[in-house]
Design brief:
By secondary structure, the chain is of the alpha/beta class. It is built from seven helices and seven strands, in the order αβββαααββαβαβα. The protein has a seven-stranded mixed β-sheet, with helices on one face.
């Protein structure tokens, strides 16, 4: 009878003890990511993360031209980003010091421990009604050239269009335009370097940030950009830029 009582007690302990949710060798904080190879040995990663968690030298985010109505519609990632920065972006926009005109830029050094990126580049998109894929390709070119100027070998990019309430362009189409522009601009940089017309710069990784609802479409868009940019690069003239002897 005593053995039966002990066995029952042991069974009760085993049944009520908390079960482990993951083995000790399992990672529960991994970011979902798809890595793709592009021209000039650029590694492009589509990552399911926000602009405040990317551990890179340069984080790029985009904003439409400021209006009080637009500010009220904003949610998600840009709101959390500015919260961690102590409201600096909202202050700049409300005061008219970064309005967000088309291709306007402003570089911010984040306060210590505010976000993981070492530098934050704000890029203006202008009026929402004027948003186009041509503009987004220009944003990709501009962002790459700023990265080259700063010597940022790893860049994270977030357009933040949906977080600002804009659905004019498809998510995949936006990333096709941005990444295509970035890759073409980088190819120009590398060609200039070969002729000694630009300082040494190597882009090791370009991270495209995407939310759960848009991850797959973003991957498809990036794949298309890599293909289109690759063909364009192959068709470029191999003649030197400079005709000096």
């Amino acid at each position: 009878m005593r053995l039966t009582r002990h066995a029952a007690l042991l069974a009760c302990v085993l049944l009520t003890a908390p079960l482990p949710f993951a083995r000790s060798d399992e990672r529960t904080d991994q970011v979902k990511e798809t890595a793709l190879d592009a021209a000039n040995n650029v590694k492009i990663k589509v990552r399911m993360e926000g602009p405040y968690t990317a551990d890179v030298p340069l984080q790029v985010v985009c904003y439409f031209k400021y209006t009080p109505e637009g500010a009220k519609r904003m949610g998600g990632a840009p709101v959390e980003l500015d919260k961690r920065l102590g409201g600096v972006i909202a202050s700049l926009r409300e005061r008219g010091e970064f309005v967000g005109d088309e291709l306007e830029t402003l570089l911010i050094t984040p306060p210590k421990d505010a976000i993981k990126a070492k530098a934050l580049l704000l890029v203006g998109l202008g009026n929402e009604d004027a948003l186009s894929l041509k503009l987004m390709e220009g944003v990709g070119k501009l962002s790459l050239r700023e990265a080259a100027r700063l010597g940022a070998s790893k860049v994270a990019f977030a357009p933040l269009l949906r977080d600002q309430g804009n659905t004019k362009l498809g998510t995949g189409d936006v990333e096709t335009a941005v990444v295509r522009g970035m890759l073409l601009a980088y190819d120009t940089e590398k060609r200039l370097q070969k002729e000694g017309l630009s300082k040494e710069f190597t882009l090791e990784a370009w991270n495209v940030e995407a939310g759960p609802d848009y991850f797959d479409a973003t991957v498809t868009g990036v794949q298309k950009a890599i293909e289109e940019a690759g063909k364009n690069i192959k068709d470029r003239s191999s003649q030197p830029y400079s005709k000096r002897k």
